[in-house]
Specification:
mainly alpha, 7 helices
Length: 139
């Protein structure tokens, strides 16, 4: 068993497996709910297993496409695992659906910067700053 600082010593997927040891199911395997996948994805993300988190979050987002939280975490997992086009796609969907989601604007700007698309990034970063109440010349 691997030691993991984020979860107090136990790897996230081991925790997820252990959670079902005492399920009342008779004989059959427990089918993980969307909520359980979401929780396990958060554990994987916290443990910096961004690819593992993204795999789970893809299903969660497909099952609950209207939820911003899972889609934003999916974009972050893609960003941290250098899947920048995928991160950009998810962030654009969030901003399209929720144009005042400040963190999505910031992440989209950073994602574009990381792809070397500085000119495209600037409007997103300015908008994120404006949502945060930061304006040029404020000191």
């Amino acid at each position: 068993m691997q030691f993991d600082q984020a979860t107090g010593g136990v790897a996230p997927d081991r925790w997820a497996s252990a959670l079902h040891l005492f399920d009342d199911g008779v004989g059959g395997p427990h089918e993980e709910s969307t909520t359980e996948r979401w929780e396990r994805a958060q554990l994987l993300f916290a443990a910096r297993d961004y690819i593992g988190a993204a795999r789970l979050l893809t299903d969660v987002v497909e099952e609950a496409p209207e939820q911003t939280g899972p889609r934003l975490l999916l974009a972050r997992a893609y960003y941290h695992s250098a899947q920048l086009r995928r991160a950009e796609e998810q962030l654009r969907r969030i901003v399209e659906r929720d144009p005042v989601e400040r963190y999505a604007h910031l992440m989209l700007g950073r994602t574009l910067q990381r792809q070397g698309r500085q000119d495209e990034a600037q409007p997103w970063l300015r908008m994120a700053a404006a949502f945060a109440g930061e304006f040029p010349g404020d000191d």
